[in-house]
Design a protein that fits this description.
215 residues; alpha+beta; Heat Shock Protein 90; 4 helices; globular; phosphorelay response regulator activity
């Protein structure tokens, strides 16, 4: 009974944290991020280690292809949350004994990411909706917050994020980020609020909208 209660409490804490993070990202007005120079691998390493621990139980492996080092100027907290959510999403939809591919490439002042699973993919008519808050499918569960947080975090860095189905099955989340975000005269990074944002109320449970994974 106690382990189950602990798990329920942990899930609730995680959900509240996700809702608060999304509310912080979507609030009106300029939003300042806190950029520092970091090594991308230092940012990704704890996320990939967590993936290894969780993936072992189902035999799911992550295959990383990319540089050993890559300096990036970013807000580490926001990008950690973004990539953690994207990779957890890929793990959730990967079949047992499957693989998740993580490709990192660098070009002309930008760094590009592609995280691909071999799950059921998304109905093409609904693929543009998966970055909306509280949109989830009918297979993987979850609250539908992870990819919405990832999109906001990426856009606040002046980046782009999009999804496409893989040929042969599965979904790829693509992300392109500048190696250094733009700053104003005070050295503070600002971004316009996300268009179409809405207030997130944490005292009223949201009603999640489902999208269909292809089979």
């Amino acid at each position: 009974m106690l382990p189950r209660m602990d798990a329920d409490i942990a899930r609730t804490d995680h959900l509240v944290g996700e809702i608060l993070m999304l509310a912080r990202l979507e609030r009106g007005g300029a939003f300042a991020i806190k950029p520092v120079a970091i090594d991308l691998i230092d940012l990704l390493d704890p996320i990939l280690r967590d993936f290894d621990l969780e993936g072992q139980a189902r035999g799911v492996r992550l295959l990383y292809t990319g540089p050993d080092r890559q300096e990036l100027i970013c807000d580490p907290e926001l990008l950690h949350r973004a990539f953690d959510n994207i990779i957890r999403n890929a793990l959730r939809y990967s079949p047992d004994d499957g693989t998740v591919d993580f490709l990192v490439t660098q070009r002309a002042g930008r760094v590009d990411f592609a995280i691909s699973d071999i799950g059921p993919g998304i109905d093409p008519a609904q693929i543009s909706n998966i970055f909306q808050a509280f949109v989830r499918d009918d297979v993987g569960g979850g609250a539908g917050l992870g990819l919405a947080i990832a999109e906001n975090a990426v856009r606040l860095h002046g980046g782009k994020i999009w999804a496409n189905n893989r040929v042969g099955g599965g979904l790829t989340i693509n992300c392109s980020l500048p190696l250094a975000p733009h700053t104003n005269s005070n050295g503070i990074v600002y971004s316009k609020p996300w268009l179409g944002c809405r207030p997130v109320m944490i005292d009223s449970p949201p009603c999640a909208t489902c999208v269909n994974r292809n089979h």
